[in-house]
Amino acid sequence: MSGIMVPKERVEAPLRGQGESVFPEGSFIGTIEKTVVRTFPEFIGKAIEEGATNRGYSSGDGEILSVWLSDNQPLDGAPSPGARKMFIDFVIRDGKATIEDGNAIPDASWQMEKSAVLLAKLAAAIGATTEVTFEGKTYTQTTDDFLQQLIDQDLNGVQVGFTTNHRKWTSKATGKSGVEVQTEEFFSAG
Length: 190
Hints:
4 helices
């Protein structure tokens, strides 16, 4: 026999729900497998051109760093993710502003502000931060080369703890709904 074979009941059933599984909620220890930098998807720029202001971006031109975690082991009774990988996206550039611009990140780019906090948590979990005082306030600062090390995949193989939750959503425009897996926290794997 040659060709594609699929059980008949799966072909006759609606596709929704077949093979769809999201990464479970809970705490896990995973290994940084790889990182990928990609440009913003076209729909972001198109939405901004059409006047959408609530997407969390200030422009349609930017970059996303995707960190892939594999070999994920559940902690504290969390469900097993099996062989599923966890993909975590961080906005690292929005227009001309980069994630390293700190207070200069545009207010409209709340996605990049959120990414800065999560990347600082990731850096702290693997020991790549220091505390600094600036204008009388204490900050957690990543090491100068942390972001570049992630991009260059120099941190591949490093273990890190992370906690996820599920956020249900429904699109006001289309009525579609789904579940988004959000990373809440990073912590030391050791």
